[in-house]
Amino acid sequence: MVKILIAEDEEILRISLENKLKKFWPSAEIIASVACGQEALEALNHLKPDIAFLDIQMGDLTGIEVAQKTSHNCHAVFITAYDKYAIQAFETGAIDYLLKPYSDKRLQECISRLNERLSSVPINLKQLLIDVNSTGEPFLKRLKVQIGNKLWLLPVEKIICFKACGRYVKVHTSEREALVRMPLRNLCEQLDPDIFWQVHRSTVINIEQLDYVNTTDNEQMQAHLKDFIEPVAISRSFAHLFRNICTD
Are 142 and 153 in contact (CB under 8 A)? Predict the structure, then answer.
């Protein structure tokens, strides 16, 4: 029996994948279903599954980092919202992927390919991922956020700003705000720096959402964003980004 590991930090998506695999691949056995990268790494090393479904966007270790750190080599399927990454790395057919939001048909195609590959030795993921990363770093296209039992895959261009909230990040759009289980520093590494500017140690703004910048009487620089009531403080460390566009 084929042994499967699932690593997905959003419970709704994890349970959905579990149910679909049981439906479309009844001969396979899900031996572990975990919610973070560290648990995925431990399960890979100890349980040694034949196939691992790894979410790329997890808060502690990403699916890519799990694949690079594990001592167990198996067939991998990356679950991703990185359009650019999918095109660069996975369309070659060397690694399979599920691009969110994926359809039942796409998952069934993935299962068919995996069945064909099970008779062969898994590729060396570590080397392949090194080669892919050397072609250029992908940027996040969609961000998954959850409020209660509802989950959204938000296009990043619709996000107005990000604000650090302890170990999490608060995401603001014109319609809602939600927490993402990821430190701001890790999130910044996945954002296009031409669009998302850090203006404070705890704040990143979408420059496309900028309305205007002004300086207060006490020389505090502020960014005023579209569809966002409160001005965002710009620290002195990042003031140079706006020096030529300020208004009084």
Answer: yes
